[in-house]
Amino acid sequence: MKIKGKAYRTIWLAPDGWSVEVIDQTRLPHEFSVIPLKSAEDAARAILSMQVRGAPLIGATAAYGLAMAIRQDASDEAIDKAVEFLAKQRPTAINLRWALEEMRRAVQNLPREERVAAAYKRAADICDEDVETCRLIGVHGKALIDDIARTKGNGEKIEVLTHCNAGWLACVDWGTATSPIYQAHDAGVPLHVWVDETRPRNQGASLTAYELGSHGVPHTIVVDNAGGHLMQHGKVDLVIVGTDRVAANGDVANKIGTYLKALAAKDNNVPFYVALPHSTIDWALQEGLSIPIEERSADEVLKMPGRLADGSVVTVEIAAPGSPAGNPAFDVTPARLVTGFITERGVCPATREGLLSLYPERAGE
């Protein structure tokens, strides 16, 4: 996608041929900053601090982190240690573990002298595959938007609501939930996006709005609790969100607040779709309430960064002094509230049978 007319991915190999560069998402939307990652420790720190975030991008970053670790020590013991170190940084997103296991499989049976090249190749392939996967998610999701456009007719705007950031900033390019939006917009379909602010880290207000605006997509930021009100008044045609992990039965873990949007959508007969790549499906997990939910720092709730009139960016306290805060980063939306999944292979019901209709090779798991 483009920032000020220049196309960017969210992660790329640096000119030295072995380190990588990423967009520091903690600086957005006030500052566009590119930072280098030169070790597995750098990659882990970027993942934990959310300089990179979003399930697919976390996986891609971890893949390159492991490649850099293998460059330092290609032994089986060092690889196993690096995999476990990187995997523990964010427990909810399954893509992190998926990417690391893909990397381990790519090198484990090779002679040590061949492992570095194989690791960097697999990391690059993971990134390229994510771009194509997200593009295809957009193709299938755009068909849903086209159907609504035909129903509404007369060139009326399609109103889409999304939560958190499942855009190109959360992936390598295109995004999951945003890919259908970008493709519909680029094809001339009139649409408008309601962007939940997504407290406490404000990924909607700071990231989704930033990238939609950079791409020229009409949008409006709303507070998290406005979604139900908008649906009651007929101002939402469909909801599209991303996900960090989908259980085999179709339950969905996504940014905290997603469950409430799904409840409101169900009550108002608004289609609620979840866009996801195959790497986000946890076939070994039978139901969503078993998904580990990351508890993040209370400071994210009690403090907020912002830009002052002089352009400086500061962090301020926003809550009653001395009050404690809880900060579960995700919630689980039951499959019964999900209209369907948008994947790179097509659209399916949010059930085990629906998922297996697109991924029949996983039937024995």
TrEMBL record:
E.C. code: 5.3.1.23
Coiled-coil residue windows: none
Source taxon at top rank: Bacteria
Keywords noted in UniProt: Amino-acid biosynthesis, Isomerase, Methionine biosynthesis
SUPFAM superfamilies: NagB/RpiA/CoA transferase-like
Active site: 244
Site features described as Transition state stabilizer, chain residue numbers: 164
Similarity-based family: Belongs to the EIF-2B alpha/beta/delta subunits family. MtnA subfamily.
HAMAP family, per the entry: Salvage_MtnA
Protein name (database record): Methylthioribose-1-phosphate isomerase
